[in-house]
C-alpha cells in the first residue's frame, strides 16, 4: 500500500497545533 | 515491556509505523546483554504525529540528560538490542556530534524516521542517541548490514536531512562486529 510520508515542515506545523498540547 | 495496543484518536495524523521510546543507563561490561536488557525502560509509545509531539514535549532536554544514557526510538515490536531478530543481521550508522549540536540533529533524525524520509522500505529499525561527556552519538539501525545500496541511501539521506556539520564523523558498524 501507500506509505504515509510526512516532511519536516508539516511535522513542525503540527507541533504547534492546539491538539498536540 | 508492552504498553498494549496503540490508540488512534480520530482527527490525528497516523504514522506509517507505531514506535516505542526506551531509556537506558549504560550497564557495566560485566553485566553483559542480560544487564542491558534489564536496564531498558519502556517510556512510551506513539502511533500519531500528535502523540509524538506530546511525548517529545515531556522529555527532558537532551543537554540535561547525564552522560552514559541512551534514548531509543524503535518500531513497536523491535527491542533496541542486537539480539532482536530484526536487528541480528543489521547494523547502524553512527554520527558523533558535539553536545550543543546534538539536540537539533536528534530532533531532525526522529522526524525523518517518523515521516518515512529515508526511502529505505522496511529496513529502518530505530534510532538512538547516546550521551557521553563531551559528545553525543546518534545512530540509525537497519535490518540488513549486507545491503550496501540501502546503507548508502540511508547515509546520503542522513547528510541531507540532519544538517550535520561537515566535520562530524560518520561510520557504519554491523551489530555482528559489536557482538564479537
Q: What report would you give on this structure?
A:
The complex is a heterodimer of chains A (21) and B (180). With 21 residues, chain A is an all-alpha fold. Chain A has one helix at 8-15. Chain A contains 1 helix and no strands. Chain B has 180 residues and is of the alpha+beta class. Helices cover 30% and strands 32% of the residues of chain B. Chain B is built from 5 helices and 7 strands, in the order βαβαββαββαβα. The radius of gyration of chain B is 16 Å and the shape is globular. The A-B interface holds A 3-8, 10-12, 14-15, 17, 19-21 and B 11-16, 49-50, 53-54, 57, 108, 111-112, 114-117, 161.
What order do the helices and strands come in, and which of them pair?
The complex is a heterodimer of chains A (21) and B (180).
Chain A: H1 8-15
Chain B: E1 14-25, H1 32-39, E2 41-48, H2 49-58, E3 69-75, E4 91-98, H3 99-114, E5 124-131, E6 135-142, H4 148-162, E7 169-174, H5 175-179
Structural class of chain A: mainly alpha
The number of strands of chain A is: 0
Question: What is the helix fraction of residues of chain A, given as a range?
Answer: 25-40%
Helix count, DSSP H or I runs of 4 or more residues of chain A: 1
Poorly predicted runs of chain B are: none
Radius of gyration of chain A, whole Å: 10 Å
Order of helices and strands of chain B: EHEHEEHEEHEH
What's the story with the biggest beta sheet of chain B? 7 strands, antiparallel
**What is the approximate shape of chain A?**
elongated
**Assembly state of the chains shown:** heterodimer
- Envelope shape of chain B: globular
Quote the average pLDDT of chain A. Answer: 84
Distance between the termini of chain A: 31 Å
Please state the CA-atom Rg of chain B, rounded to the nearest Å: 16 Å
Order of helices and strands of chain A: H
> Residue share in helices of chain B?
25-40%
Span between termini of chain B? 27 Å
Amino acid at each position: 500500500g501507500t506509505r504515509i510520508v510526512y516532511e519536516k515542515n508539516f511535522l513542525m506545523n503540527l507541533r504547534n497545533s492546539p491538539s498536540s498540547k | 515491556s508492552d504498553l498494549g495496543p496503540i490508540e488512534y484518536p480520530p482527527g490525528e495524523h497516523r504514522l506509517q509505523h507505531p514506535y516505542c521510546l526506551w531509556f537506558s543507563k549504560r550497564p557495566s561490561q560485566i553485566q553483559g546483554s542480560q544487564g542491558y536488557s534489564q536496564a531498558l525502560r519502556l517510556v512510551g509509545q506513539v502511533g500519531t504525529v500528535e502523540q509524538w509531539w506530546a511525548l517529545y514535549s515531556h522529555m527532558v532536554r537532551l543537554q540535561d540528560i547525564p552522560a552514559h544514557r541512551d534514548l531509543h526510538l524503535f518500531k513497536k515490536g523491535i527491542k533496541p538490542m542486537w539480539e532482536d531478530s530484526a536487528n541480528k543481521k543489521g547494523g547502524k550508522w553512527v554520527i558523533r556530534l558535539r553536545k550543543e549540536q546534538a539536540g537539533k540533529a536528534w530532533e531532525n533524525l526522529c522526524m525523518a524516521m517518523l515521516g518515512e524520509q529515508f526511502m529505505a522500505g522496511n529496513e529502518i529499525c530505530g534510532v538512538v542517541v547516546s550521551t557521553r561527556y563531551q559528545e553525543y552519538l546518534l545512530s540509525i539501525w537497519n535490518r540488513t548490514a549486507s545491503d550496501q545500496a540501502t546503507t548508502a541511501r540511508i547515509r546520503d539521506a542522513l547528510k541531507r536531512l540532519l544538517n550535520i556539520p561537515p566535520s562530524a564523523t560518520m561510520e557504519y558498524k554491523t551489530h555482528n562486529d559489536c557482538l564479537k
